[in-house]
Design a protein that fits this description.
The chain is an alpha+beta fold. It is about 45% helix and about 15% strand.
């Protein structure tokens, strides 16, 4: 199963940075760069940074989270 398939075929609604990195194979530092630049949408919940599943799927497929 590819990383893209594992993301789209799950009931998870959001990922931590660690979880998103594990699910996609994208290094955490790269995810942070894209979050900071605005290309990957995320939200802060308490002290945690979460990436909505749909934003991650769009990003992995080559789009920007802004395209949603």
């Amino acid at each position: 199963m590819s990383a893209n398939e594992s993301i789209t075929e799950t009931s998870v609604i959001s990922y931590t940075i660690d979880g998103a990195s594990e699910a996609t194979g994208i290094p955490k530092s790269t995810l942070w760069e894209h979050i900071k630049s605005g290309r990957l949408a995320s939200l802060k919940v308490g002290r945690r940074r979460l990436i909505p599943r749909e934003s991650l799927v769009t990003f992995v497929r080559g789009g920007s989270s802004d395209d949603q």
